[in-house]
Design brief:
mainly alpha; 18 helices
Length: 412
């Protein structure tokens, strides 16, 4: 039987916002490794003579690694057996090391393997962070988890800012910078990531629990909603740089402008996460997720019309999309913490995230092929529209279940 104990004294129960602030900063820093290679893919294509297909795998390898890490962790109940502080800090240190080794990668194959390892490590940060913050917040959980996802969003966007502001410097600056930031994040996690006063019961190793999670109808409807959301999210994040670069080029704007625009669009999701959290705690989680997905799906449909239009319209739709595409993300996880088995919340979250990220692998791989089929990026994002439609249907179905009364103290 696997067990884990945390012998350090806990942070005082009266400081949930302090823990949230420090942990969110740690997540911002550590998640910079997620898109570190994507932000410099143009340079890496030249370094390793990558084809467009090979370049896609620099992004997708992280997604696949995250899937492997999250599903593996859920199978052995790892997030419910190992102290969150230990799991998160160790994982962040591994992610930093794998990212830094890109500097010495002799080939594209080696780089893709390192990106896979980075994804595996990141799976040891994200799900445990959601569980840990849930132990500090009963009321206001939607907002708290929204801030955590907002931190992930800022961290994911940061490499694009680093690339935009280091024009003329070597791509290695982005790699070193994100690796150092992740190590600082690991240190913060080691020092401050402790469970709150509403800790979940300790679990024992039980692989059969995974089947119980899959048979829990409210949890699975929340998962289906999440899957629809994820079909859209990471394909948009992963390929928006290519889309906006193609849109800005006729206006005489180059790679630096495209990187800065991509940063602003993705980073605007922090606003969406906070607004989504407030909405979820006030009007309900299923209502909030449905509103956000309806908005983001509409943006995915409309942005093609703005591709060749006035820049201010294109940027306005892009920012609204950046806000809404991630604004609901935390609420799917919050629902799982409320309607799932309390002894296996970490396992349930890891399973949700693992399967959701598996779907992103398909979407990220399919989108550039769809763009090639259409002859350009203008209408490519139409492929993402079915995701939020399916997700909205699932959340409205969950809203009608009697178990939905457990969500957000009855604000379903």
């Amino acid at each position: 039987m696997l067990t884990s104990t945390d012998t350090r004294p806990p942070v005082q129960a009266g400081s949930p916002w302090r823990v949230l602030a420090i942990l969110s900063l740690a997540i911002v820093l550590s998640m910079t490794t997620w898109f570190s290679a994507t932000a410099i893919v143009g340079e890496l294509k030249a370094v390793w003579s990558l084809t467009d297909d090979s370049a896609t795998w620099l992004t997708n390898a992280v997604q696949i690694g995250f899937v492997a890490g999250a599903l593996g962790a859920s199978f052995v109940n790892l997030p419910d057996l190992v102290a969150a502080r230990t799991l998160m800090a160790t994982s962040a240190a591994i992610a930093a090391g794998a990212n830094l080794l890109l500097l010495a990668a002799p080939s594209a194959e080696a780089a893709i393997a390192l990106r896979f390892l980075t994804g595996v490590a990141l799976a040891g940060i994200y799900p445990p962070a959601l569980k840990l913050i849930s132990t500090w917040f009963i009321r206001g959980r939607g907002l708290a988890l929204g801030i955590v996802i907002g931190a992930l969003t800022l961290g994911s966007a940061f490499p694009h800012l680093l690339r935009a502001t280091t024009t003329g410097l070597h791509w290695q600056v982005v790699v070193v910078g994100t690796s150092v930031m992740t190590l600082v994040g690991a240190a913060l996690m080691a020092l401050f990531a402790r469970e709150g006063p509403s800790a979940y019961p300790k679990a024992t190793f039980n692989p059969r629990q995974l089947g119980d999670v899959l048979r829990n109808k409210p949890v699975m409807l929340a998962n289906i909603g999440y899957f629809g959301h994820m079909w859209e999210l990471y394909a948009m994040w992963g390929w928006f740089l290519a889309f906006i670069h193609a849109a800005l080029e006729p206006h005489g704007l180059g790679a630096s402008a495209a990187s800065m625009t991509t940063f602003l669009v993705i980073a605007s999701g922090f606003i969406g996460c906070v607004v989504g959290g407030v909405m979820a705690d006030r009007i309900g989680r299923t209502a909030t997720t449905s509103i956000m997905m309806a908005t983001s799906g509409t943006c995915a449909l409309l942005i093609g019309f703005a591709f060749a239009g006035p820049l201010w319209i294109l940027l306005a739709i892009s920012i609204v999309w950046g806000i809404s595409v991630i604004g609901d993300s935390a609420q799917f996880s919050a629902i799982v913490t409320e309607v799932g088995d309390s002894s296996f919340v970490g396992t349930s979250l890891a399973l949700q995230l693992g399967l959701g990220f598996a779907l992103t692998v398909i979407a990220i791989r399919a989108l550039p092929s769809f763009a090639d089929y259409l002859g350009g990026w203008q209408w490519a994002f139409v492929l993402l529209v079915p995701g939020p439609i399916i997700g909205t249907i699932a959340m409205l179905a969950l809203r009608r279940l009697p178990q939905a009364e457990k969500i957000a103290q009855g604000r379903r």
